[in-house]
Design a protein that fits this description.
Elements lengths: L2 E5 L4 H12 L3 E6 L2 H9 L4 E5 L5 H15 L4 E4 L16 H29 L2 E5 L12 H19 L6 E7 L2 E2 L11 E2 H12 L9 E4 L7
Parallel strand pairs: 1-2, 1-4, 2-3, 4-5, 5-6, 6-9, 7-8
Helix pairs in contact: 1-6, 3-4, 4-5
């Protein structure tokens, strides 16, 4: 049985992808900071391993991979999905600048640590690594520091693809548009569902080994930007 590791797995796109991977026959490793939510999700799946992990902590990320290999024996797919956003406005006095630091650490540094820790095992299995980018990483949003972090993830995805060329490891950047997830306080009109993004993830990983879907940009039909 192949192993599918997901960070940011407790809610939203991560949880939806966990359910999709479980349905496709993967053993799913669920990683996030909220262990109680992970355990609740794991209980609803066929074969899942919940691991508490803060992706901004190198020791915890290494421990996550070590536990995965101990429990499952191999690592075949990694979805570096952990991330969060915040209010816009570079001069907005209501925004705590500490939130910007947290976004860089989670969205950018956390993704890089996940890459660093998982690539050796993925190289051995000739596996697949996916990163959650965003449409905000393809077009700048006014006053959006989150957008800046996702532009970094876009660059990371292509840099990783080139770095892993010849190893047999596939790389995919998943770029959602507006999705109805806990990212938004109120349900956005006409938004995609988390399951729509999970379907895109599963499309990428289900391709033949010689096919690498490098980027998937998914918008709702009604999204203008």
């Amino acid at each position: 049985m192949k192993t599918f590791l997901i960070t940011g797995a407790s809610t939203g796109i991560g949880a939806a992808t966990a359910r999709a991977a479980d349905a496709a026959g993967y053993r799913v490793v669920l990683a996030a900071r909220s262990l109680d939510k992970l355990q609740e999700l794991a209980a609803s799946l066929t074969d899942a391993v919940p691991i508490r992990c803060d992706v901004t902590d190198w020791d915890e990320v290494q421990a996550m991979v070590a536990t995965t290999l101990e429990e499952c024996g191999s690592l075949d797919v990694v979805f570096a999905n952990a991330g969060f956003g915040g209010a816009r406005g570079f001069t907005n006095p209501d925004i705590d600048v500490a939130d910007w630091k947290s976004m860089v650490l989670t969205n950018v540094y956390g993704a890089a640590l996940t890459i660093r820790a998982t690539v050796p095992a993925l190289t051995e299995s000739k596996g697949h690594i996916l990163l959650t980018g965003s449409v905000a990483g393809r077009r700048a949003l006014p006053g959006s520091f989150y957008s800046a972090t996702k532009w970094a993830v876009t660059g990371m995805g292509e840099g990783l693809r080139q770095d892993l060329n010849g190893t047999g490891v596939r790389t995919t950047l998943i770029e959602p548009g507006m999705v109805d997830t806990p990212f938004f306080e109120n349900k956005p009109t006409g938004a995609l569902e988390a399951d729509d993004i999970a379907n895109a993830v599963m499309y990428a990983v289900s391709q033949p080994a010689h096919v690498d879907v490098n980027e998937i940009l998914v918008r709702p039909v009604a999204q203008e930007g």
